[in-house]
Amino acid sequence: MEPKIIDFEQGWDYIETGITALKRHSESLPVPKFTLEQYCDLYTAVYKMCVQKSPYDFSSQLYQKCCETMEEYMNSTVLPALNEKLGDEYMLLRELVERWSNYKVLVRALSHIFFYLQRFFIVRESLPSIETVGMGYFRDLVYNKLQSKVREAVLALVDKEREGEDIDRKVTKRVLEFYIEIGMERYEQDFESFMLKDTASYYSRKASSWIQEDDSINDYIFKSEQCLQKEKERVSHYLHFSSEPKLVKVVEHELFVVHENQILEKTHAEKQIGLGPLAKIFKQHVEDTTINAKEQVLIRKVIELHEVYMVTECFQSHTLFHKDLKRAVAGSDALLATFCDRIILKKWGSEELSEEDIEKVVMFLAYISDEKDIFAEFYRKKLALRLLLNRGVSDDHERSILTKLKQQNRGQFTFKMERMINDLTLSRENQNSFKEYVAKPGIGLTVTVLTSGIWPSYKTFGINLPNEMVKCVEVFKEFYETKTKGRKLTWIHSLGTCHVNGKFDQKSIELIVSTHQAVVLLLFNTKDKLSYNDIQTQLNVGHEDLVWLLYSLSCGKYKILIKEPATETVSRTDVFEFNSKFTARMCRVKIPLPHVNDKKKVIEDVDKDRRYAIDATIVRIMKGKKALGLQQLVSECVQQLNQMFKPDIKTIKMRIEDLITRDYLERDRENPNMFRYLA
Amino acid sequence: MHKLNRTNRDKVQQFVAITGASEKNALQTLKATDWQLEAAFDVFYSQPQPRSNADMRRLEELYNRYKDKYSDMILADGISVLCSDLQVEPQDIVTLVLSWHMNAATACEFSKEEFVGGLQALGVDSIKKLQEKLSFMRSELKDEQKFHEIYNFSFGWAKEKGQKSLALDTAIGMWQLLFAEREWPLLNHWCDFLQDRHNKAISKDTWEQLLEFARTVEPALSNYDAEGAWPYLIDEFVEYLYDKSVVEK
Questions:
Q1: Which of B200, B205, B233 should we substitute to test contact with A (largest number of A Cβ atoms within 10 Å)?
Q2: Is beta strand A497-503 parallel, antiparallel or unpaired with respect to A508-514?
Q3: What is the pLDDT of residue A316?
Q4: CA dihedral A524, A530, A532, A534 (to 10 degrees)
């Protein structure tokens, strides 16, 4: 038998009656209890209306009606009820959370009744579920209209609590939960961002008044800490946990960072120590002082900070503060070396720097103890340049500075540097006897003999020297062989300097150039014009190096050679001509070679040196012990090396493996954690 | 024979069948090793075999069959003929075991001494007999101790002459071949890791320690000791596994 067709009007009337009862029920108005049977009947009604054959399938109409019902409920009941309470902030919040929780119950009930719609019609048509639609109405029709009122009400409560009043935390918590329920972004955008701004201005007022009250610094710190503590509690009472870091940051900023200078001044004056929070301020202070400082100024600033806060003992060299200073100079060993260089050369702008500053640097070196060898390498480079380019610093002066460095560090630290100064003294003596040996004017050759391995390694490339120079080199070789036995001379022309007389149209000018540049210039004695290829075949120099030389002579400040075409780069097709029109105000001109950045090379060199040092240490230890477990070997190794640098365990392991490959060590057959020395 | 109990009699027969030794020799060897078959094989194969002129001549003939035309060695061509005579693929792991028996210095070549000495040690003097040995050689891979030896042997065998370490591609190929015999669940990760992060040759120490690692450390790394003396490459591999969340820390 065909079931009786229910028409829409009739069916909806029945359902609507049910819904009205549900509404009253959800608002806890006195109604007869809503029984399970009633639920089932309503569900059945909906079910029947949805499964009737078309045109009696009323799914779509039911969905629409259901939505309309919720919308109408918002406009006719919830919104007016809330509007009534607009006068009283607290009552408004209470009404809001109350209405919201009732409404959630109602929506849930509706979605039960229309469950059949939910399962088939809504899924099939990919419509938003009844709950989504319901929540959306509340947000759009109620919350959006009252948004600013609600926020102000909550913020007013928070402010009251900050001033010490008791507030209804339960309601506050429920309001904030409501924010989160209608979307985390509502919480963050509509509430949290305003709350943070509010907090900032609150504490900004507090901080300036406290500072002015001229309390002792300990009181200030104490009060600030208390505030921070309270804000954290506030989060745990009713805010979302994600707000805590943001809130703490705002408060710290207002209380500490903004006033860091005053606070540190006071601390300095009172010599009081309240370590925890102060360290934070100090860190910020170091960062602020150094962040915008240019490289060289940075070192100066950090040393000043060190001087002011460490040496004066007001922080009693507490490790908390060490870390911050150390971080500020991380990776600036090169700068520190440059700083020394400038002090020694007395070339620090207009500022006067004295030996005392050097002492400060030496003290400060203690702070970069992990990386001392990098500093040493940079210092060595700078020292080499000072010595070789004869910068007018006396050997004694250099020696006295080295003595200072040596006091703070081990002899190994300055070993090479001292040998370098010795080399130079020896060379000067040699030079005198060389002059006697040649005993005739005409050869103006000064040779400085450096011990390889002690000096930084210099890039050197082969070049065909002109005959004049070859002769000089040979004479010196003969001379040197009379003085020493079995030593090999390698000529580093890149460090050489030549004085070349240029006969220009207007006047003769003495050009001070590097040996390499001189070799290029001498080619133009026989010919006025030479192509790049001619020069390259005559000198037999690599492309990169030749470009570098020609660039310095034709594209720099002084154009001794004219390049065709007159571009800013040198290429293989260029032609060069002697610039006879060249002139200068002075009769002696130094033509600089463009600088090659060597920071990377220094780091590489240090790495290499470290590898050798680790290898040597491992072999030394193993030679003594014959067999040793990994842990002992590593710890002995670290112990022996940490005066110079902190070797990391991974590197030591890699070195051990390398030594195994090179047959210095072997892994024990039975115990793989054990290594043996192979004689 | 009549004095022996049944199990021991079986063992003697088995021994004779496998090694081709005389019954008397088998009896002596087995008695000396307390009737442990495996140990007896070890003893038997490590003893210098009595050389008879007859099998020496046959071995020479065999050698000449595979010898390179221009040098006094068996080279790649000869080996591929040998493989097809034995009806095995050249990539078959059994060729590695054979090379191990011959104590071959380098892959893809046998010197006369290695070839003849190896066959003598195996106690065979014809292709047919060698072929019959193949299944025994395969079974040797299942033996923990022998596998260890073959594994360590294969490093020197597979690397280029004159090099100290093993080219990465070759190493990965060898690992895939060897670990096909004994499963190691981290093998593919290991190979990926090497190609991704390392891309350099493998040292002997790393090679040898990897088997140790695969044997002793659980695939979940539960008993991995970060303080241990594992080669740094293996330490890095462990970090890689954590990074990629292959293994939960």
A1: B205
A2: antiparallel
A3: 44
A4: -90
Q: What is the pLDDT of residue B206?
A: 92
Q: With both helix axes pointing from N to C terminus, report the angle between A411-438 and A372-388 in degrees, rounded to the nearest 10.
A: 20
Coil, helix or strand at residue B218:
coil
Distance CA B106, CA B99 (A): 9
- The two three-digit tokens of residue A585, written as one number: 């105000």
**CB-based contact, A635 to chain B, within 8 Å:** no
A214 Cβ contact partners less than 8 Å away, ≥ 6 residues apart: none
With cut-offs at 50, 70 and 90, classify the pLDDT of residue A315: very low
Alpha carbon distance, N-terminus to C-terminus of chain A: 105
CA-based max dimension of chain A? 138
Question: Beta-carbon neighbour count of residue A290 at 10 Å?
Answer: 20
* Residue A675: per-residue pLDDT: 92
pLDDT at A387: 80
- For residues A593 and A548, the answer to whether their CB atoms sit within 8 Å is yes
pTM summary value = 0.46
Q: Does B149 touch chain A (CB under 8 A)?
A: no
Q: What angle do CA B62, B66, B68 make, to 5 degrees?
A: 135
Query: Which pLDDT score, from 0 to 100, does residue A313 have?
Result: 42
User: Best mutation site among A614, A659, A661, A675 for testing chain B: the one with the most B CBs within 10 Å?
Assistant: A661
- Residue A266 neighbours by CB under 8 Å, 6+ apart: A216, A217, A220
Model confidence band, residue A508 (pLDDT cutoffs 50, 70, 90): confident
| pLDDT tens by residue, A324-377 | 555 555 555 666 666 667 666 655 444 445 666 666 667 666 665 566 777 777
